[in-house]
Design a protein that fits this description.
Length: 258
Amino acid sequence: MNRRKILKVMAVGAGAITFPQLTFSGTSSGTFSSTIKNKYRAVAFDAFPVFDPRPIFKLTKHFFPEKGNQFADLWRTRIFEYTWLRTSANQYVDFWQCIDDALLFSSTQLGIKLSNEQHHQLMQAFLNLKPYPDVIPALMKLKAMGLKIAFLSNMTEKMLMNNIINSNLHGYFDHVISTDRAKTFKPSVNAYQLGIDTFGYRKEEIIFVAFASWDAVGAKWFGYPTVWINRLDFLPENLNIKPDHSGQNMAALLEFVS
């Protein structure tokens, strides 16, 4: 092969190589560093590692001091039992309806008579959630790392947008993904698939951040790198699978992604 042919082959081969974008570091040594810090490209959050749900259930204790704790536990449990039952039976209604149905079941089960105003306030509490104090600093760090950020939640898009507005979280989330798009709930694979479809990345490139232990299991089964933010000290599920990392606050996520 003559010199001209060798150069032609080398040029074609070089054109097939994709290099990471490099930026000048500004150091006196003149070294360069890649803007791609790791293999992850996006973070998908469940709603409740971000929004604190405890004021919702404090309201039941305010309205019904003698049965408030029992009411809160039953209502919370029944909400997700209804989502799982409806998913398995292919009888979908949205998350807002599941919350309402579970509320009415729980009050009836405990012999509690809800006034119209109490019913309204308990439901509206799901639209007025506030973030935990560590959320905004963590989101700022994730954005500075070049990661895309989304919600991937059972909440309806209206619920998520209301809480984003009320929490001054505009600008931090690139996507707001409700499982309502797929007419299903987590841990259905069709629910988790929405993250891939929306971001356009491989599942291995999207970190899923769970609040509930069952959601951490579902995301890990699906194949997402999974971080469990166990803010309320839940027990892990006994299903022979664990999230990739866990902790009680956003420090666990930042540690995992760094």
